[in-house]
Queue: 3 jobs
Job 1
Amino acid sequence: YSKYLRQVGRNIRSVRARRGLRQVDVEEKIGLEYKHYQKIEGGKVNVSLETLYRLSRLYRVRVEELVKAE
């Protein structure tokens, strides 16, 4: 898996943790399948722009914060 996908996954995980949400909470709130969300946070799958947008709305952050490379 690419280094960039892993970084995006870490960013998403970090924001979720700061919001005090569990992975299953994400499934309930935006309808993203739990196992797919695990793969996103693990950097194992590409994330669609639509999913990034939905996550950014849920977490109240800009999409850029989710995809920034360090």
Note: The chain has a mean pLDDT of 94.
Job 2
Amino acid sequence: TRGGDHGQLKAGDGCATAAVLAQSILDHSYRYKAAGANAVLLQRGLKRAAEAALEALRQMAQPVEDEEDLT
């Protein structure tokens, strides 16, 4: 349960995970660029990875119609 939720949520919304992943991607991008990587190719790779991750999430998604579906 998170602090301001007063017990309503039992799992996080993924915000912290997204922040950690974004920081890691940024750190690695800087390293690759400093090592001489092509920035355009790096951007294309990141875009393709994001699209693949989004598609995987879409395939795992389950519809929610009411509160009962959440438990």
Note: Residues 39-60 form the longest helix (22 residues).
Job 3
Amino acid sequence: GFTVTWEPETNAAVCVKGDQSLTVYLGTTRAVFNGEERPMAQPCEVHQQRTCVSIRYVAETFGLTIEWDE
């Protein structure tokens, strides 16, 4: 699984799986994966006191596959 933490000093959520790390910054499209800038198409935002980010972006950044099952 993933471990997710919040860094209040930078307004960032950090998602870690094994030796891979993704940091997304609230209110921006800025994201850093393993030290490399990888901007998102849509900004990270808050909805009902939860940090929201595209699941497709997170999954594909970590090398996972997203499929739609009707």
Note: The radius of gyration is 12 Å.
